[in-house]
């Protein structure tokens, strides 16, 4: 009841502004990727209580839109003063990755534009077509993996994912150095008093931007590794249990899978799929074992074989693929010819082909 007055005077106007910002985002063609994040909930004793998908409410989206608006305003203000700025840039997707994505989507009956001026709207069109279908998760993952990596630089090239011509990080100066540099640049450019960027301070921006881009990548990797270790410790007591999952990646050494229950990641080693070496096609994102072609997005049932809390690694055995029981292909009992017999056998095969 105490908050009711705030609904009309504060909350409703905020959501009105949020609605306007969301409309503007859609018009300019911001990439609409919605992939869930894992959330690890710890018990008071430090053990893992549960692992779940992080909730995403309208209030979260509202705050994000206002933060984006503030970041754009900071970059715009510095440009208006012809002052140096630390930009947060996101380049267009790498052409080679884009071509691989285009080929794979064609196999799903989805056509990605070949326009030289590809923008996020083209990718949103593909995501919308795949929405609510069996390939929605698969297409979202592949679109994400085709993206360039965002980074910091004093040279502005825009932000592809957000569809913005200029963008900087401004809203978190207590935890990101890039934001602190932007604050200092604004103080100096707008004459706001002490604490501004010193004369000549912008000369160090290229080196600083390179360094903080690298440290950001290390921080992201450290967070991912920490989550993996917590999850492996949490599931270690369930070795031997079966889980529903989907294939999230393929490599020559096996299949990466993501559990439905927790979003936890693990590996099905190639050696457990076949005694012979499987065939990996990185362009089509497939791993072939006999006549079976595993690809990203397929539904599987797996059994947890190993969970290592020290490394964060989890190994699984494959039980079912797309609702069908998996059986490892039988190896031929016919011994392989050796030496002179092998040469004669090869000659015989060549003569038959002729």
Provide a descriptive summary of the structure in words.
The protein is an alpha+beta fold and 354 residues long. Among the domains are: 33-91 and 148-231, no CATH class; 239-325, Nucleic acid-binding proteins (OB fold (Dihydrolipoamide Acetyltransferase, E2P), Beta Barrel), CATH 2.40.50.140. The chain is built from nine helices and 13 strands. It has helices at 4-28, 58-80, 95-107, 120-130, 136-145, 177-190, 205-235, 270-273, 339-353, and strands at residues 38-42, 48-53, 87-89, 151-153, 242-251, 254-259, 265-269, 279-281, 286-289, 292-295, 299-308, 313-321, 324-325. The strands form four sheets. A six-stranded antiparallel beta sheet has the order 7-6-5-11-12-13. Helix 2 (58-80) packs across helix 6 and helix 4 (120-130) runs antiparallel to helix 5.
């Amino acid at each position: 009841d105490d908050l009711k007055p705030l609904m009309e005077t504060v909350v409703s106007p905020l959501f009105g502004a949020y609605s306007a910002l969301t409309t503007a985002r859609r018009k300019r063609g911001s990439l609409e990727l919605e992939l869930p994040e894992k959330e690890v909930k710890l018990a008071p004793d430090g053990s893992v209580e549960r692992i779940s998908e992080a909730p995403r409410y309208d209030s979260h989206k509202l705050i994000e839109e206002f933060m984006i608006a503030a970041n754009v305003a900071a970059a715009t203000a510095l440009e208006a003063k012809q002052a140096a700025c630390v930009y947060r840039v996101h380049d267009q997707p790498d052409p080679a990755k884009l071509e691989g994505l285009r080929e794979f989507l064609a196999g799903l009956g989805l056509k990605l534009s070949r326009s030289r001026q590809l923008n996020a709207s083209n990718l949103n069109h593909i995501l919308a077509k795949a929405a609510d279908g069996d390939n929605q998760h698969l297409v979202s993952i592949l679109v994400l993996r085709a993206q360039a990596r965002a980074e910091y630089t004093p040279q502005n090239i825009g932000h592809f994912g957000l569809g913005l011509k200029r963008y900087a990080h401004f809203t978190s100066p207590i935890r990101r150095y890039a934001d602190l540099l932007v604050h200092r640049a604004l103080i100096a450019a707008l004459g706001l008093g002490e604490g501004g960027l010193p004369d000549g301070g912008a000369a160090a921006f290229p080196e600083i931007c390179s360094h903080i881009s690298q440290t950001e990548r290390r921080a992201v990797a450290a967070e991912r590794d920490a989550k993996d270790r917590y999850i492996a410790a949490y599931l270690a007591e369930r070795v031997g249990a079966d889980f529903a999952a989907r294939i999230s990646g393929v490599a020559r050494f096996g299949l990466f899978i993501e559990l439905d229950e927790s979003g936890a990641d693990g590996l099905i080693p190639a050696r457990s799929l076949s005694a012979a070496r499987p065939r990996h096609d990185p362009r089509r994102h497939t791993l072939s074992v006999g006549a079976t072609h595993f690809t990203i997005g397929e539904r599987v049932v797996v059994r947890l074989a190993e969970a290592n809390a020290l490394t964060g690694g989890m190994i699984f055995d494959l039980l079912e693929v797309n609702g069908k029981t998996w059986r490892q292909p039988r190896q031929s009992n016919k011994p392989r010819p050796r030496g002179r017999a092998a040469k004669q056998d090869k000659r015989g095969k060549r003569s038959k082909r002729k």
